[in-house]
Automatic annotation (TrEMBL):
It comes from the Eukaryota. Keywords: Oxidoreductase. It comes from Xylocopa violacea. Belongs to the Gfo/Idh/MocA family. This is Inositol 2-dehydrogenase. Residues 1-22 are annotated as: Disordered. Residues 46-166 form the Gfo/Idh/MocA-like oxidoreductase N-terminal domain. Pfam families: GFO_IDH_MocA, GFO_IDH_MocA_C3. Residues 178-292 form the GFO/IDH/MocA-like oxidoreductase domain.
Length: 318
C-alpha cells in the first residue's frame, strides 16, 4: 500500500501520445516499415562488395537486409565459395568476379558505391580505382598500409568529389558513445583511470592473421582510438608487454596476448588488455573511473552506478 498514493488517476489514453526516446531507434525503424514510409531523398544505391571473409560477411548480411541498397557485384578470389555464397544468401541476380575482373565494377556507370572488405594489402588499390571511377567508397580499416598513401586516398576523394568513409566501428556503438557523452558531460569528474578489454572469439585463422597486419595494427588500434576519443587527449608515455602463447602465431612474428599501460598529460592512467583467443566467448569491455558521483543509468550494456557511483562500465559479451 505504500505506493498507492502515487497512483495516476488519469488514463494514459487521455494524454498526448509520447514519442519513443531517441535511443529506441529500432522502434523508429519499425514505424517506418509499418507505415511504408518512403523518403524521396533516399534512393536505392547499387553496390559492389569486395571480399566476403570475416568482415565482408558482416557487410553482406547488412546489405541484403537493407531495402535501400541493391547488390550488383561481389568480388572475391576464392571461386570455390561463389556457389555456396549465392545459394545461402539467395543472390541469383548478383554477378561474381575475381579481382582480375574488377575493372567491370569500375567501368559500370550504374554502380554508386563499393564496400571494401578484402585483405588489408589490397585496400589502397581498390579505393583509388573506385574513386577515380567516381564511386563512393566504404572501406574497412586501414585504407592503406602507411600514412602517406592513406592521405593520397582522401585527396583523391576530394578531387573527384566522392565520399570515402573509413572509421572505427566502436564509435558508433550506443554503449560506447553513451559513456563518451557522460564523461564529456563531467558526470564522473576528471577521469582517473580508463580501461579496455578486447578478446577475440573464435580464434582467427592463421591465414587471416598473416594478412591482418598484426595484433597491434589489426586489433589494438580500436582500443587506442576508443580511449583517446573518450578522453580527448593522447598519451605521452606508453609501456607494452606482449607474448605469443600459441606457437603458430609466434612462428609468424606476431603476438596473441598484449597489455598496454598509458599515461596522459592530464594525469589519467589507461590500460588495454588484448587477447586473440577467448575461451568463454567474444568479450569487449570499457571502464571509466573518476571521483565524482554519477546518478545516470545507462540504457545499453551494463552500468554499475548502484555499486560504485564513480564508475562507468560497459560490458559487451556476445
Amino acid at each position: 500500500m505504500a505506493t498507492t498514493k502515487f497512483r495516476d488517476t488519469v488514463s494514459p489514453y487521455s494524454k498526448p501520445r509520447p514519442s519513443p526516446p531517441p535511443e529506441d531507434y529500432l522502434h523508429q525503424k519499425y514505424l517506418s516499415d509499418l507505415t511504408l514510409k518512403q523518403d524521396a531523398r533516399l534512393p536505392v544505391l547499387k553496390l559492389a562488395l569486395f571480399g566476403v571473409g570475416r568482415a565482408g560477411t558482416i557487410h553482406l548480411s547488412n546489405i541484403v537486409a537493407n531495402r535501400r541498397v541493391k547488390l550488383v557485384y561481389i568480388v572475391d578470389d576464392i571461386e570455390s565459395k561463389w556457389a555456396s555464397i549465392k545459394n545461402y544468401w539467395h543472390l541469383d541476380d548478383v554477378i561474381f568476379l575475381s579481382s582480375k575482373q574488377a575493372d567491370k565494377v569500375y567501368n559500370d556507370p550504374s554502380i554508386d558505391a563499393v564496400v571494401v572488405a578484402s585483405p588489408t594489402f589490397t585496400h589502397e588499390g581498390i579505393v583509388r580505382k573506385a574513386l577515380e571511377a567516381k564511386k563512393a567508397v566504404f572501406c574497412e580499416k586501414p585504407i592503406a598500409e602507411d600514412d602517406a598513401n592513406s592521405v593520397k586516398c582522401y585527396e583523391t576523394a576530394r578531387k573527384v568529389g566522392r565520399p570515402l568513409f573509413c572509421a572505427f566501428n566502436r564509435r558508433f556503438d550506443p554503449s560506447y558513445s553513451s559513456v563518451k557523452d557522460r564523461v564529456r558531460n563531467g558526470e564522473i569528474g576528471h577521469v582517473h583511470v580508463i580501461k579496455t578489454v578486447a578478446r577475440d572469439s573464435p580464434l582467427p585463422t592463421l591465414d587471416y592473421i598473416k594478412t591482418s597486419g598484426g595484433i597491434f595494427h589489426d586489433c589494438i588500434v580500436h582500443d587506442i582510438d576508443l580511449i583517446t576519443w573518450i578522453l580527448g587527449e593522447f598519451p605521452i608515455k606508453v609501456a607494452v608487454q606482449a607474448h605469443a602463447h600459441i606457437p603458430e602465431i609466434k612462428a609468424i612474428g606476431d603476438y596473441d596476448t598484449v597489455v598496454i599501460s598509458l599515461y596522459f598529460p592530464s594525469g589519467t592512467l589507461g590500460s588495454i588488455d588484448i587477447s586473440r583467443n577467448s575461451a568463454y566467448g567474444y568479450d569487449q569491455r570499457l571502464e571509466v573511473f573518476g571521483p565524482k558521483v554519477s546518478s545516470v543509468n545507462g540504457s545499453w550494456g551494463k552500468t554499475v552506478d548502484s555499486i560504485a557511483p564513480n564508475l562507468l562500465d560497459v560490458a559487451l559479451e556476445l
